[in-house]
Structures are given as C-alpha cells and as structure tokens.
Amino acid sequence: MDRLYKKIELVGISSKSFEDAVSSAIEKASKTLHGLAWFEVVEQHGRIVDNKITEFQAVIRVAFKLD
Amino acid sequence: MDRLYKKIELVGISSKSFEDAVSSAIEKASKTLHGLAWFEVVEQHGRIVDNKITEFQAVIRVAFKLD
Amino acid sequence: MDRLYKKIELVGISSKSFEDAVSSAIEKASKTLHGLAWFEVVEQHGRIVDNKITEFQAVIRVAFKLD
Amino acid sequence: MDRLYKKIELVGISSKSFEDAVSSAIEKASKTLHGLAWFEVVEQHGRIVDNKITEFQAVIRVAFKLD
Amino acid sequence: MDRLYKKIELVGISSKSFEDAVSSAIEKASKTLHGLAWFEVVEQHGRIVDNKITEFQAVIRVAFKLD
Amino acid sequence: MDRLYKKIELVGISSKSFEDAVSSAIEKASKTLHGLAWFEVVEQHGRIVDNKITEFQAVIRVAFKLD
Amino acid sequence: MDRLYKKIELVGISSKSFEDAVSSAIEKASKTLHGLAWFEVVEQHGRIVDNKITEFQAVIRVAFKLD
Amino acid sequence: MDRLYKKIELVGISSKSFEDAVSSAIEKASKTLHGLAWFEVVEQHGRIVDNKITEFQAVIRVAFKLD
Amino acid sequence: MDRLYKKIELVGISSKSFEDAVSSAIEKASKTLHGLAWFEVVEQHGRIVDNKITEFQAVIRVAFKLD
Amino acid sequence: MDRLYKKIELVGISSKSFEDAVSSAIEKASKTLHGLAWFEVVEQHGRIVDNKITEFQAVIRVAFKLD
Amino acid sequence: MDRLYKKIELVGISSKSFEDAVSSAIEKASKTLHGLAWFEVVEQHGRIVDNKITEFQAVIRVAFKLD
Amino acid sequence: MDRLYKKIELVGISSKSFEDAVSSAIEKASKTLHGLAWFEVVEQHGRIVDNKITEFQAVIRVAFKLD
C-alpha cells in the first residue's frame, strides 16, 4: 500500500470564532503529531453566557500520515 | 431531575457573514428568552442576487434553561 | 441582522391525503402564528385500520418571521 | 383535519440514569403543557467528573395535541 | 409549472477562509451561469501543510433558474 | 461497460401540488435532455403567503442515459 | 411485554400517483398479513419513459401485530 | 459462503423500560425463529397518557442464522 | 397497482471478498425466494483474526416480486 | 480563489464487478470532461435476473477542475 | 485557544445492561486517560445466545481534555 | 465489564483496489496494535490522474481489544 493515514477527532474551543477554533486545534495538535495532512469540520456549536457567545466549539477530524 | 432545557430552531439572516447571522440570532432571541445556554449550527445557506451573496442564512438550534 | 425566523415542528393528521395533512396543519397553525413563510416535509406515515389507511400523518417544519 | 400535534425538543438531565432523564423531563414538561401524547429519544450523552458519570443527558422530542 | 431550478455541486478552494472559498466559487460560477439564486454549504474541509491550513475547501450546492 | 447514466438535481415549483412540481420539472427537463430514465424525490418544501401554500417545491434527482 | 410488531419493507408501484402506490401496496399486503397497524414512507422515486412518468414507486415500511 | 443471516425489524412495547421492551421482543421472537444471533437498537420512543409514560417502544433489528 | 416488491435484509459472510459475500447471499436466498429483482449494498464490515481478514461481511437488501 | 471543482453524479453499470462499474464510468466520462481529479462511491446496488447478478450499478460523484 | 479536547470511540460490553456497558467503559478508560469530560452514546446492540441477551454492547465517544 | 474495544479511523490508499486498500491498512495497523477484532468500511473514494484511477482510498474503522 502506498500510504496510510489515521484520523482523530478533536474539539477546539475558541472565544473568537469557529475558524480560530479550527486553526488553533490544528496548531496545538501539530505539536505532538507529525504529518498532518487534512481536516474536516464535523460540527459547529458553542456556549452562551449572559446572552453572548463565549465559546465557539468546532468538532473536527484531522488526518495524519503514518510512517 | 437536576435541570431541564428546551431547544428551539432559529434561522438568522445576515448580509455580512454566517457568524454574524448566528450571533445576531442569539442576541435577538435573548431579548425574549432567559437562560440561553448553548447553540448548534444545523445548516448554512444563502441567497444570491446579481451574482453576489446578499444573505447568509444560518439555521441554528438554541437551548435555554427551563426553571 | 436583517431578519429572524423560528421553525416549529408539527404533525398534521388527515383522513384524506398527505397534502391535506400538510395544508390543514398550516391553516390551523396560521390562526395563532403570524408571518408563516415556508414549510418543509420531514416525514410521512400513517395509521391502518381494517386494512385501510385511516390517517395520513405528515410531520412538517413551519417557519415564521419574528418581529 | 382530524388532529394537530406540536413537537418540542427537550434536554433532560439526571444524575441517575437515561430513563430518569427522560421521565423527569416529561413529568416537568407536563406541568405547563396539556395533552402530551408521545416522545422520541433523539440523543443520549452525559458529563463525566472525576472519572464518574455525574449527568445523564437525554435529548427527546415530545409531542402534544393542539386544540 | 411556475419555475424550474437546477442545482450543481462545486468545491471552492481558498487560502484565506471558508467564506472566501464560498464567495469565490459563486463569483467564478456566475461567469458562465445566469440566474444564480441560492447556495447551500454541504461540507467544509481543508489541507494542512507544515502544520498550517493552506487550503479551505468548501463544498457547496448552487441553484440557478432555468428559463 | 454496458451503460452510463448521469443524475442531475432539479427543483420544480408548482402552485398546485408536489406531484405537479415533480412531473412539470421532468417534462421541462425532457426538452433539452434525451434518455430520461428515472427520478428520485429528495426533498419536499414550499412557500406560504397569507397563510396559504403558494408554492410546492420538489427537489428531485433525474437520471438520463449518456450515449 | 404488552405487544410486539414486525415491520416489513415493501415497494409499491403505481402508474397513477405516489399515494396510489402506497395504498395499493397496503391493500395487497393485507391479503396475507393480519393486523396491519401503521406505515412509513421511506423513499419516493419513479420511472420515466418517453419523457413521461410511467411508474410511481413508493418504498414503505408496514408494521403489523404479532400475536 | 460460510454463513448467511437475515435481519428483521421488530417493535417491542413494554410498560416498564426500554430494556424490557428489547428483551421481551427477543424472547417472543425466539419462539418462532431459530438461531437468533444479535440485535441492534434502531429507535426508542414511547407513549404518554395523563403525563406518565405508559409504553416504552423499542425498534430493534434482530439477526438470525439461515441454514 | 402494477407490481409489488418486498425487500429483506441479509448479511452474507465470505472468507474471500465483499463481492463473494454479496453474490453468495443472493445465490443462497434464491433457493427459497422467487422473483429476486435487485439488491442494494447497505454496509461492509468484517472480522480480523491474527491480523488477517477472515470474514468479509456484506449487509444487503434484496428485493423480490410478490405475485 | 486558487481552484474551483465541479462534482457530477454518475451511475456506472457493469456486468463484471463494482470496481469495473466505477472505472468504466470514469473512463467514459473522461472522453468529454477534462481535468478529472477524484471520485467518491455513493451507492452500490445491482440487478438480479434468474437468480444471478447481471448488473453491478455504482453511483459515484466525480470531480473535475474548472479553468 | 482556550481548550482542546480529543474524542475517542469505545465499545463497552456488559452482560448486565447498556448503562453498565457505558459506565464500565468510562471507568476502565479513566485508568489510562486523564481529564475525561463527556461521552455520547453512538450505537446500542448486543449478542444473543440460546434466545437470551448475553452481551449489551454500547458504542460511545468519550472526550478528554488535552493539556 | 466483560470486554472493552477501541475503534480508530484509518485511510488506506492502494493503487490496486479498494479491498487491497482495506487489507493493507489492516496489515500495517496490526504491526503496532494488538488484538485487532473487526473493521467497518466507512467511505470509498479515489484519485484520478490522466483519466485513470491512481489511488483507491478506503476509510475504515478498526476495532481492537483493550486489556
């Protein structure tokens, strides 16, 4: 087989935006995983406190290459 | 039972962005509903007029605490 | 935000047809809700008694404008 | 049309079990809604604190008859 | 019949954001298609190179009016 | 390979009924496409104006044979 | 246990309409099955010949009581 | 082929609990079917009368070995 | 109604391949059922023993004509 | 935007196997479409005649680059 | 980013009940994972031997905090 | 609890076939994981270069026993 990837599911939480939640999750995951190749947005939800969105929660799947 | 929440489905429409559609819907909903706790993005679509996006439409579910 | 809609889920039951179940549900809902704008058919099922369909049950979501 | 039902979505939370979350949600909902007729379990999840399940969260849809 | 629409599926790719991927896809599609009316976001994923998101990929369905 | 079909997605809109929306869409599509072979109903929704259904919207997929 | 039902999946085909496909399937099924109680519409599709719908195909699930 | 299984869909109804609805359905099915091998819970819903759950309805698929 | 079909769900298990699991299931089913007309692949999974695939399991739905 | 792809849905039919249905569909599509980039298998079904599979039908989505 | 969670998928098997399968899986997982925060029930199925349920199998997703 | 399994998601890529992609992924995974027990095919897609399929990509979930 040419290549093999593993996909893991992460939930990134940001106080700014969904895209910040996604990119921060990937940035943090890259510190312990090598060969990150792609991601998929699975769900988008968030927390509301005092009528304001205080957390943007992005559920993503991230794929990385196995050697 | 410790707590009970009700979830309602809203469609927020913004001329700016999906996140504005989401946050404006929540802000407006908070004027008549107390105890908003979380939201979930269900669908994202929009209207196109003269080849431009004129409406970002975000279907969300919003949960609030029942006393 | 330009506009905000709320969607509710109804189950209309008619002895005639699915379309009667849908249109009757909307007609009845319009007596207490203003600004009905669109509907979506979610499920279609029914009851059988003595080998005949006695109820057409249409699950619909109806959206109406919030002021 | 013979009858019309409305379905609402609730999230019941119990420290005991999923079935307690469901039945308590229905019991509490029945205090303000008349004509509850059936329910559907949509999701089952929960919270974990110190390696123990502290909340059973049951998302249900409850249908009640509109007059 | 009053009107007829056709929906096509596009995958827009942007180095900036999901919303740029969506709006650029619509802008480019509008050069060959007349009567674009609405769009729906179907999937959101992306490519990662050297631990950074280099592509935001938005799968959308775009509807346009047939004469 | 014996045969190859292409499926396209259409949204037929009728003021009369869902089945009229479906059959009119197919009739109109047949004017520019040859070899229509089957269709599938994907979604059924509609527009409401002044408490009445003014549009039945049927999303269908239509398959036709490629030579 | 109070009662037990079995659900079977049928595909009714009618040259007239989806509702005729559904009701004819149930009528025919009732000749060999006792205690039919309810049905659910699962899919709606059809065949096109010479640009006309020649078959309405309704996939339904039918439930009947087991003694 | 090593083995062949058939799956059927049952709806068990119990006044006690979902698990009683499941196990009673399997117990009753086993009286006429040999070689039951596994089951899958498909849906969980129930009936409410006078603000109390009077029926737990479990839709399950049961697989049994064909000789 | 022109015709009526029944669909049943089978799980074919083969030590060779998914397509052998499918075709063997159909061959075996044809010994007791007349008028098999089409099949649909629903799921594909399998068993692993000692790091090798020992079973290819194909869940299929098979339709046959009722007289 | 860096790139734009269009996805179309094809149904390839082969008397040999699902993979032949897929690869033949792509080979035939490539005669009129440039820049084919990837495909996705959406459904797998087939026709049965005289207790044998006579057609393997693969529904696929094929993406190609728009200039 | 405020926080990052990872979700893993487990299949707990109990001879007693689905809830025992869930809670035992979480208890066992907590021995090697720190910061378990929530779980979601994904599927419920089981094994039948001699007409009795011998295994309750609960597929769950468990989320835990990454430092 | 009798047993506990963990499921991981892999993407195997083969230049030959989907089944080679599946079996190679399992073979490679077995070098670092003990107790592989079953797998499920989740998605099947591939890459096209110069009008030919150059990669068969199989997304699978693989379950293995935790001690």
Q: How many domains in all of chain A?
A: 1
Low-confidence stretches of chain A: none
Summarize the amount of helix of chain A as a percent range: 10-25%
Q: Please describe the biggest sheet of chain A, giving its number of strands, its sense, and whether it closes into a barrel.
A: 3 strands, antiparallel
Q: Please, what is the oligomeric state?
A: homododecamer
Q: Globular, elongated, flat, extended or rod-shaped: what is the shape of chain A?
A: elongated
User: Could you say which structural class the secondary elements and strand pairing of chain A correspond to?
Assistant: alpha+beta
Task: Give a concise summary.
12 copies of one chain form a homododecamer. The first copy, chain A, has about 70 residues and is an alpha+beta fold.
